[in-house]
């Protein structure tokens, strides 16, 4: 895919995050997707030299976990934040930590005769687990339930017009009917929204490493956690140093190893020695990819001689799981093996780490093999390509006080040119370029004097240019000029434009 087409930009006015109103701005996209599904568009196949009817379908969405909530309509906070377990979750709220906790929610995924299920000491004290994994809800049932709960679509009630859906936070977490349900095929999809492996892996890694290194403010083993521990577990290290914490000498040994001995091939990872902060005893400035590399390539053996054997094995297990999950080729047997292993891996961590360690990011890996079985290798379903692409728009920023606006201005100039270069013959492009150069020259000459008064004159000239080209059947030039006019008018700050019949305002809002 060409880089120019990786992002489909939409204009979201205003300084504030759209949050639930995002669906309002997705309406043009959904309209086009519906058209592409129902009617299709005429396209030209260069290899066969013939026209064909092109239809398109939206397979799934890829986003981080907060955006998952905005796109799917399932709130990703609180006790019911897992979109797979839904109301069948065993998550609870910690008494002192006051956070939702997924501790001991994974024994139910183990085989029914597994000894862990009957243990009353290793996990929640005096609790045995006999339940099976939570059932999966298919698209048609969700669609039906949304109607039953009375979840409204934002495009009908408006961004601020939502009333709380019946039973939200208690029996379900649907806060709206996502606009994607307007697509006729959406309820037949088996995988609609992807859990982003990149962010899950990064958060999981940070939680582990900060707890092992006991980084103040970041560790999950804090005072509140120690107060909560006796309420849920029968463990004897309430007052002493827990087995998963590195002692000072071992920590120095670990950092020395990272600084002196760890070497990767060129371009494989950034220089990890720069991330070691001896003074504060932690890693600093690690990017998502650094976490990815350390998690998969170093964790499986890093703590072999530094921590106890059972702790090392539990930590290595999660590193190996992510390494296998992210492999380029996945087989049915491999995915079955991952599904079988992950409950055991998380249970091994539950045996060691305190309940406060298990937030939703430590729970979500349990559903990743199932998504891999439906959607294939994670390389096509995670955020890395999009995050990396952001490097290029960020290079375009000239005005640091208005970063987003600066990116939009540069991208909007480039897009018509790219489209023209791909769609039309060179001689047409040259003519269009000439027209655009004239237009820009006109704009630069006219604007400094008296922008609003000169507008009719500009419109008249542009109108003439469009009419002439229309008569000579150069429709593409007409379209291009129109795009350019919109850009010029936006630059002149004559008006800001919003989508779908919102009011057109004479003064631009701050961005
Ligand atoms: Zn779940």
From TrEMBL:
<dbReference type="Pfam" id="PF13960">
    <property type="entry name" value="DUF4218"/>
</dbReference>
<dbReference type="InterPro" id="IPR025452">
    <property type="entry name" value="DUF4218"/>
</dbReference>
<dbReference type="InterPro" id="IPR004242">
    <property type="entry name" value="Transposase_21"/>
</dbReference>
<protein>
    <recommendedName>
        <fullName>DUF4218 domain-containing protein</fullName>
    </recommendedName>
</protein>
<dbReference type="Pfam" id="PF02992">
    <property type="entry name" value="Transposase_21"/>
</dbReference>
<feature type="domain" description="DUF4218">
    <location>
        <begin position="325"/>
        <end position="422"/>
    </location>
</feature>
